[in-house]
Amino acid sequence: MQEGKGKVYLVGAGPGNPELMTLRALNILKKAEVVLYDALLDPSFLEYFPESAIVHYVGKRAGQHSATQTEIQDLIVRYALQNKIVVRLKGGDPFLFGRGGEELIAIKKEQIPYEIVPGVSALSAGSSGAGFPLTHRGLSRQVLIMDGHTVLEEETDWTWFAQFKGTIALFMGTSSIQKIASRLIEHGASRLLPVALVENASLQTQRTTVTSLGKIAEEGISKQTPGPGIIYIGPVVNLMEEGSDLPMHGQGSFGEEA
């Protein structure tokens, strides 16, 4: 292949179910010459890769990293500079805890043509599959998305966090949620606040565990599957119970006394 500059597509594959890929994502994948793909959960994704494509698995799971972020970016750039069409297929949306921003910086540094293709995030797929909304009139007008890995290490304003009037979504937070729950309660959040852990969003193996902030602070919460999970905190979680008679302003909202 003549040296030059191909094109890089940072493509969101959706939350795990191939049927939730966008039409644009599918059309781009069909013409890929190189595919670098994440741990996309459902192995049927592989059926959509062109037989002629060079394929690299670069997925990350806790304790099972197959490639560093720097190595992934080096592969993207190297293949693009060989004048190839490179598809970086990422779970969920590339720009929501997908490290797509880091890859974009590397691509721009080499002045390589690119396109960003957004994907359905596990954020919305998880709540939809569990049967509750992220926002709901009278209960939640805003959503706070946080990284459970680092929230305890950063200078978090826990008083503001505990008084948040809306829905909190924690990515990568199952190992730290007990400490997070305790910290929220210490700063004024209600122990009765409902919490849902949704695992394997959008798949047949999706599992949802519902509990309260107080119980998590005391006992933690255990995953039922080895797949990824998202934790949702807020009164909207109660809406998954059919016929739930919720007050319009959300009993158990942040800042209330238990």
How would you sum up this structure, described in words?
The chain is of the alpha/beta class. It folds into 2 domains: 7-117, Cobalt-precorrin-4 Transmethylase, domain 1; 122-240, Tetrapyrrole methylase, C-terminal domain (Methyltransferase, Cobalt-precorrin-4 Transmethylase, Domain 2), CATH 3.30.950. It is 24% helix and 20% strand. The protein has 7 helices and 10 strands. It has helices spanning 23-30, 69-80, 100-109, 122-130, 158-162, 177-186, 213-219, and strands at residues 7-12, 34-37, 54-57, 85-90, 114-117, 143-147, 167-171, 194-199, 207-212, 229-233. Strands 3-2-4-1-5 form a 5-stranded parallel β-sheet, sandwiched between helices. Strands 6-7-10-8-9 form a 5-stranded mixed β-sheet. Helix 2 packs across helix 3 and helix 6 (177-186) crosses helix 7. The protein is elongated.
Can you identify the CATH class of the largest domain? Answer: Alpha Beta
Number of strands: 10
Low-confidence stretches: 243-258
Secondary-structure element order, as H and E? EHEEHEHEHEHEHEEHE
CATH architectural designation of the largest domain: 2-Layer Sandwich
- Largest sheet composition: 5 strands, parallel
Strand content: 15-25%
Shape: elongated
Report helical residue fraction: 10-25%
Number of helices: 7
Can you identify the CATH superfamily of the largest domain?
A: Tetrapyrrole methylase, C-terminal domain
N-to-C CA distance? 67 Å
Total count of domains: 2
**Strands of the biggest beta sheet: in what spatial order?**
3-2-4-1-5
Instruction: Quote the CATH topology of the largest domain.
Output: Methyltransferase, Cobalt-precorrin-4 Transmethylase, Domain 2
The Cα radius of gyration reads 20 Å
Structural class designation: alpha/beta
